[in-house]
Amino acid sequence: MKENHPLQLTVSRRDKIYAYCAITLLILLTAIGVFGARKLQTKYSIMQFLPDHHPAIQMDARVRGYFHIQDLPTFVGLITLNANQRGIWLQTNRVEQIRALTKTIQSRDDVAQVLSLTNVNAAAVKNGELGVGELLQVTPSQKWRERIGGDPLLVPMLVSKDFRTILVYVQLKDAGVHLLLNFYLAFQRDLKKYFPRAQADVGGVPAVQTELGLLLSKELRNFIALTILACVLTLLMIFRTISTMFIPLIFTAVANIMVFALMAWTGQPFTVLSATIPILIFITVVSLSVHTIFRYSEDAERHKGPISRWSVIRELNKDIWLPNLLGALTTCIGFLTLLGAQVPLIRSFGVEVAGAVMLSWLFTSIGIVPLLILFPHPVPRTWVRRPAGWILWVTSRAKFTAYAVAIFCAILILTSRQLYWRARLFDDLPKGQPARESTERMDKTLGGVIPLDVAISSSENSAWTDPVRLNELKSLLVQLRKINGVGTARGIPDFFHALAEIPKPILPISRAAVSEIYFLYSMSDPDPLDSYLSSDQKITRIDMRIRDLPSDQAQVLVKKLKHTVQEQFPHDKVEVGGMGAIVHLIQDEISVELIYGFWQALLLIVIILAFIFRSLRTALIAALPNLVPPIVLLGYLSLTHTAIKPGVAIIFSIALGLAFNNTVYLLNRLRAFKNASGVITREEVLRAFILEGNPCLISTGIVLIGFSVFLFSYFSLNQTFGRCMLISLNGGILGDLIFLPALLYLWPKDLRL
Question: What's the average model confidence in pLDDT over 262-286?
Fold first, then answer.
């Protein structure tokens, strides 16, 4: 069949049957993928960025083990009286409202424990006898304010200093994704139901994580929509034939569906890092499609008479399969180097994206054949088909260009020595979100929100029944509370202070009296001292909440606190645990490892290129301009004081893999022009860059458009990721399309292709 086209491309009946069969198979596979992708779960947790085995995590596990502290999610309800509501919470009618809410929540099957002012136990002297019971029941209502206001166990952990904000802590039985989400929504409803006139919010680390999970689901839908829009607009700018834009659009959709289906089938959740997958698939598919379609159009136009489409495609595949494979493979290697990371989340992300890239390559390379057979011949726009004349400007000033780029990179290296290690824990959730606002309010005014535990171990039996030691611990608690950055600090002496109507001195003066009070508390169910005193009474715990400080300040604070405790008890063993002790420390270590881990990706890529081109010298020359993107990125992070996190640090390996794409296509074009001896001349360098320069520039432009989608993210982490990728890709343009042609034009004979 002849088409109404000057190229006179023909399609046989056999080719049509093959094409229709291939498309039918693709549709069936996609339908199966849609069914599987619907089961994909979303998950976000700060602890996802921590490694399985690390000394700090092992110490945290030991500290929790001493006191049988379970690592279960705890939501915090914050209920604040509005300005038009007079009085305080310590009024009988309002206390009954809190009691009713507490009982309702405690009745839920998924709740392990609820703690509020209405069910907190306390010891008290009544009718001359020491007893234990609910604080507000054993204390007369007229003395509530006096009794609670001076108790560090209650203020500001359960009620604010002005008594106008009350907190309800809810610990769940499990940390499952659906459980967290369902309880978070139910807790919000209960707060609104019982306190319709007050300002009622849910805060705490699990609340932030759950709200981030909800936004991740929404972000996934938005990213897919923006990806499709970017794909359509990009292809309309490149091709005159409207039907051409459906080729990469189809494979972008199919690859996304199949990758998410595989994640769902293998139980991999959709995390904050996974939001990059749709964009990376789009970039891979569109880049491969554009390069393939360009070469297909170029090869077809060389034939004057009638020729079958299959013949053109067969000829095309001989030229394009290797650079397409290498382009996908170098990107894949960048992500596979993340397998060396200590963090399970980052390792999983590396595998997911590497698999997504190779799956995209497979679908595009195989699936594009039937579409090129059936669709109208693709016609690039005039501006796209023009030779890359701007290369002449670069090569005519080759020496100046090469030295200028080298000097620019040297300056950036000098400026990048001071990176900004000041990331905070809760700045990923967008500002204005209820969970973030309530958690920040807790952090600033209600005793801090980041837990830090300090365990003090003595070799002496029943060491913490010694009144002398308890007095030293009491002095230490007073000292710790005065340190800037500490919200609250609680320990065993506070439980003695909490004994109402006991005359001073507050602390007992004998071991027997201490043991008597310990026994009294043990009659309570649960015993509040279990989490502060080990069963052999040799280890005690200081329970602290610290502020959400920048990473460098938080680590200094933790070291200072540990040093202060060790000074007070120089002969005891001091260990620290909790989120405040481990998250910042480990995330900074991981970030350093990831930033400088791109050397692994560089080495692997050099080895592969040396094998493919059979020349180590050529592989090293190809690697040189691809050092420009990470150098530019380091300079940008330093000059803009961008806070370093693992989610930002992984960009270095990613960017390096993407940067090699243009290099691979340029070297492949040069190899086609080499003479019998394999030597490259300046004329051949110029010719290769003139022919391949614009396709590479367009391909990079597509990648830039793809990563621009991240700028519309809800999350600051993804926005930062997008900005950094754009900076890195511009560094890739500088390296591959300016620095590389200048180098090769100056020393073309060093290439062996």
Answer: 79
Whole-angstrom Cα distance, residue 624 to residue 526? 65
CA-to-CA separations, 353 to 45, 65, 700, in angstroms, rounded: 20, 37, 19
My answer on whether 394 and 291 are in the same domain is: no
Residue 733 belongs to domain spanning: 387-417+596-753
Examine the domain organization and report whether 691 and 612 are in the same domain: yes
Same domain assignment for residues 377 and 407: no
- What is the residue-averaged pLDDT of the chain? 83
- Residues 412, 317, single domain; the answer is no
Rounding to the nearest 10 degrees, give the CA dihedral for residues 542, 547, 553, 555.
Answer: 40
The closest of 149, 159, 172 to 79, measured between CA atoms, is 159
Task: Please say if the pLDDT value at position 412 is more than 80.
Answer: yes
DSSP percent split of the chain into helix, strand, coil, nearest 5: 65, 10, 25
Report the share of the chain in percent with pLDDT over 70: 91
Q: How many domains does the chain have?
A: 2
Q: Give me the phi and psi of 371, to 5 degrees please.
A: -70, -35
* End-to-end Cα, the chain, rounded Å: 41
Q: What is the pLDDT of residues 467-509, one digit of tens each?
A: 999 999 999 999 999 999 999 999 999 888 766 554 444 677 8
Mean pLDDT of 646-661: 76
Query: What tokens does 170 get?
Result: 């809810």
Residue 604: name the closest of 291, 416, 340, 285 by CA.
340
Do residues 373 and 246 both lie within one domain?
yes
Q: How far apart (Å, rounded) are the C-alpha atoms in residues 560 and 556?
A: 6
* Exposed e or buried b per residue across 454-475, where buried means at least 16 C-beta atoms within 10 angstroms of its C-beta: bbbbbeeeebbbbbebbeebbe
The SS3 call for residue 218 is: helix
Within 8 A by CB and 6+ apart from 335, the residues are 349, 350, 351, 353, 354, 357, 653, 654, 657
Residue 157 token pair: 């952990």
Question: In this structure, are residues 259 and 274 in contact, taking their beta carbons and an 8 Å threshold?
Answer: no
Of 662, 736, 667, 671, residue with least CA distance to 696: 662
Q: In what order do the strands lie in the sheet with 486-490?
A: 486-490, 539-546, 450-457, 573-577
Q: Residue by residue, what is the 3-state secondary structure of 519-545?
A: HHHHCCCCCHHHHCECCCCCEEEEEEE
Average pLDDT of the segment spanning 411-418? 83
Residues 625, 739: one domain? Answer: yes
Q: How far from chain centre, in Å, is Cα 577?
A: 23
32-70 tens-digit pLDDT? 888 888 777 766 555 555 666 777 778 888 888 888 787
Residue 638 in tokens: 């330093």
Distance, in Å, from the CA atom of 255 to the CA atom of 259, rounded to the nearest integer, reads: 6
Please tell me whether residues 301 and 392 are part of one structural domain: no
Q: How far apart are CA 531 and CA 69, in angstroms?
A: 6
> Do 395 and 312 fall into the same domain?
no
Contact 741, 394 (CB under 8 A): yes
Identify the three-state secondary structure at position 216: helix
Look-up: residue for tokens 């200590």?
A: 342
Q: Are 104 and 190 in contact (CB under 8 A)?
A: yes
Find out whether 642 and 720 touch, Cβ atoms under 8 Å.
yes
